[in-house]
Design a protein that fits this description.
This protein is α+β, with helices and mostly antiparallel strands. It has four domains: 95 residues, Beta Barrel (Thrombin, subunit H), CATH 2.40.10.10; 103 residues, Trypsin-like serine proteases (Thrombin, subunit H, Beta Barrel), CATH 2.40.10; 96 residues, Roll (Pdz3 Domain), CATH 2.30.42.10; 87 residues, PDZ domain (Pdz3 Domain). The chain is 19% helix and 37% strand. It has ten helices and 29 strands. Strands 23, 24, 25, 26, 27, 28 and 29 form a seven-stranded antiparallel beta sheet that branches. The protein has a six-stranded antiparallel beta barrel with strand order 3-4-5-8-7-6. The longest helix is centred in the first third of the chain and has 21 residues. The radius of gyration is 26 Å and the shape is globular. The N terminus is likely disordered. GO terms for molecular function: serine-type endopeptidase activity. This is PDZ domain-containing protein. Belongs to the peptidase S1C family. It is found in: Periplasm. One of its GO terms (biological process) is proteolysis.
Length: 447
């Protein structure tokens, strides 16, 4: 026992000596060691903690008996209960009280409260929210707020140092650092418009909606997602660039909705082999298979069989990249499109139309679609009809329909709007939906 104690004491002494020897010096030669402290002190007051309360009904994960027992959630006679979640936000306009955060942080909230750097708590209201880009805008009423300058995310380069500030696991105003690992990341979520900044700065649950800050103390991204098998940080995090977040914020404040750009084409991915069959030397691109009459594409002179390979400075390798490039622009925006026609590369300028997200309920269309909601346009490229939501255990859910699915044809007839879907559904008891789900295409039978 004495021997064990001595070894233990010796180990503690060794650790103490090692820790002392490992401490960083204040100076190296005549140069002081760099510190991020001044940058953190300047930007942290603009980052807020967000607490969301919402009522969940029976059928949600919270109503599962094992889930309730594990987390100690009491039963509710009415089948509903209040649950709380946490996230982060960034004050970007102190004068008007505007805060940027993620859509998924505040989605379905009954009450939202924010905590400032000085622990002051305020009630917040949602100005607007956009699921497709995962951006939401909140507003609070308060004097003496501190905001953060918004930087130009288009100037961010791979290798730039950045810091992430947020509320991971409820640990308020946690700061982590890293570099920008990649730019223009897509395919992270099942649906939506993506152009993420990838970083290895630690991002964990609760960081959502927090700040990604450059070394000038400017906001360059809103932290949004991670890739992780365990749910914790593995050095792969993603942030919505401020170029996108600022555009969405402006539209939500001005219009209360996002007026997304629309080119007005039906497209499909084409590879090098397919392009050669059309006499074009293109590795990959987006082939126009149909053009909507009176659309921006028609006005610009684009034609069926044109292969789009670039939008502004963004190279286009497939249909998804074209949908992102157009959908992240606003209606009325001008874009330069490079395409291949008859083996020759050409460019044209197009002024985008407006893709209005008018939501329709499946209940009014067909009994088998009950519980599903649809937008008027699937994507900015007009590829079909997007399923925006599916109620759990509804007829639509039971038949395999999911939020984010894009219906491109019904009973072998191409559909691009709700009136076409309604017309087919009125005359058919059974519907065969051709659905695009991510990179897959599948057929669903609706009775």
């Amino acid at each position: 026992m004495i021997r064990t104690t001595r070894i233990f004491c010796a180990a503690i002494c060794l650790l103490a000596v090692t820790a002392a020897n490992a401490a960083l010096p204040d100076r190296v030669g005549n140069q002081p060691m760099p510190s991020l402290a001044p940058l953190v002190e300047r930007t942290s007051p603009a980052v807020v903690n967000i607490r969301v309360s919402q009522t969940v009904q029976a059928g949600s994960p919270y109503s599962d008996e094992m889930f309730r027992r594990f987390f100690g959630i009491p039963e509710s006679p009415s089948g509903s209960r209040e649950v709380a979640s946490a996230g982060s936000g960034v004050i970007v306009d102190a004068e008007n009280g505007y805060i940027l955060t993620n859509h998924h942080v505040v989605d379905g909230a009954d009450r939202i409260q924010i905590s400032l750097y000085d622990d002051k708590t305020l009630d917040a209201e949602v100005v607007g929210s956009d699921a497709a880009t995962d951006i939401a805008v909140l507003k609070v009423e308060s004097d003496n707020l501190t905001d953060i300058p918004i930087g130009d995310s288009s100037n961010v380069r791979v290798g730039d140092f950045v810091i992430a500030i947020g509320n991971p696991f409820g640990l308020s105003h946690t700061v982590t650092s890293g570099i920008v690992s990649a730019l223009g990341r897509t395919g992270i979520s099942r649906n939506g418009y993506e152009d993420f900044i990838q970083t290895d700065a630690s991002i964990n649950p609760g960081n959502s909606g927090g700040a990604l800050v450059n070394m000038n103390g400017e906001l360059v991204g809103i932290n949004s997602a991670i890739i992780s098998r365990s749910g914790g940080n593995v050095g792969i995090g993603f942030a919505v660039p401020t170029e996108i977040a600022q555009s969405i914020m402006r539209q939500l404040i001005d219009f209360g909705e996002v007026r997304r750009g629309l080119l007005g084409v039906t497209i499909q991915t084409i590879d090098e082999e397919g392009a050669k069959a059309l006499g074009a030397e293109v590795e990959r691109g987006a082939l126009i298979s149909e053009i909507t009459p009176g659309s921006a594409a028609e006005d610009a002179g684009l034609q069926v069989d044109d292969i789009i390979v670039r939008v502004n400075e963004k190279k286009i390798g497939d249909s998804r990249e074209l949908a992102n490039a157009i959908g992240l622009k606003g209606s009325g925006d001008k874009v330069e499109i490079e395409y291949v026609r008859d083996g020759r590369r050409k460019t044209v300028n197009a002024t985008l139309g407006e893709a209005r997200a008018q939501v329709s309920a499946g209940t009014d269309i067909h009994p088998g679609l009950q519980g599903a909601e649809f937008s008027a346009n699937a994507t900015s490229a007009g590829e079909g009809i997007e399923v925006t939501a599916v109620e759990a255990d509804s007829p639509a859910a039971q038949r395999g329909l999911r939020a984010g699915d894009v219906i491109t044809a019904v009973n072998r007839q191409r559909v691009q709007n709700m009136s076409q879907l309604r017309q087919i559904a009125e005359n058919n008891r059974i519907l065969f939906l051709l659905v695009r789900r991510g990179e897959r295409t599948l057929m669903l039978q609706i009775r």
